[in-house]
Inverse folding.
């Protein structure tokens, strides 16, 4: 039952989905002769999706997540035992010849590789599903990372899985401190989940390109891309709220602890 509720809640974070169900509810109210209430709900439904399809509104919403952890140059990052890169982001650049990590400002994998090239940690952990980690392996290899310098965690279906399974992997390899790489919008939830898994994590957020351009049309003209980005941001806010109120511990090594104590690490079994 809980997974079903979670899936329904996540689907409603996409503005068009919520607008559709509100419009359907408005139609029902019309049939029941509740015209004023129906009109109010239907106007709100249309305005909701229209608002979040505006690039300026979408970027404003996402900035409230992205600004929580500042972007730091790879050379300024602290030393760690491993760099953990979460699956996600487009890999269209894989087919480009002679590509370098410094050319890919918005790539999670490139950010992880830059940290590795700056000697911030000796190993990169790639975490995601089997298909995702396969593509990630090809990508980091193309960027010059040898197979001896990365580990795979390929059991994950979501960020919470990544936190739990990465903590298990870290425990086996004696890894205590990590640099956590993901998009700036995703970073608040990722950091919370990894800390709940008792991992000593330092945020390495990767900036996302803005939806809005510098022209009036770029800022105010509704777009499907802006609408999708808004939905992603709402999903992160809901996920962050759920993770913040989670009652069960996610520490895979010591599930008998009701909370993860400050200073605990996966190796402290």
């Amino acid at each position: 039952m809980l997974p079903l509720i979670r899936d329904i809640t996540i689907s409603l974070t996409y503005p068009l989905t919520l607008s559709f169900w509100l419009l359907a509810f408005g139609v029902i109210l019309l049939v029941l002769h509740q015209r004023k209430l129906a009109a109010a709900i239907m106007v709100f439904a249309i305005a909701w999706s229209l608002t979040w399809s505006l690039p300026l509104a979408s970027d404003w919403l996402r900035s409230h997540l992205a600004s929580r952890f500042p972007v730091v140059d790879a050379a300024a990052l602290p030393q760690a035992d491993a760099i953990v890169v979460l699956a996600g982001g487009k890999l269209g650049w894989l087919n480009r010849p002679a590509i370098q990590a410094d050319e890919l400002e918005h790539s999670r994998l490139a950010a992880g590789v830059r940290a590795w090239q700056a000697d911030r940690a000796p190993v990169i952990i790639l975490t995601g599903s089997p298909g995702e980690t396969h593509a990630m392996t090809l990508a980091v290899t193309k960027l010059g990372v040898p197979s001896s310098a990365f580990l795979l965690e390929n059991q994950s279906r979501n960020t919470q899985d990544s936190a739990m399974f990465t903590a298990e992997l870290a425990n086996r390899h004696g890894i205590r401190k990590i640099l956590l790489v993901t998009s700036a919008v995703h970073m608040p939830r990722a950091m919370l989940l990894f800390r709940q898994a008792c991992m000593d994590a330092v945020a390495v957020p990767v900036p996302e390109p803005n939806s809005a351009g510098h022209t009036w049309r770029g800022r105010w003209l509704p777009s499907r891309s802006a609408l999708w980005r808004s939905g992603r941001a709402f999903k992160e806010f809901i996920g962050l709220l759920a993770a913040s109120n989670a009652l069960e511990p996610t520490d895979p090594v010591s599930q008998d602890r009701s909370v993860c104590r400050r200073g605990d690490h996966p190796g402290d079994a």
Q: What stands out?
A: The two ends are 33 Å apart (CA to CA).
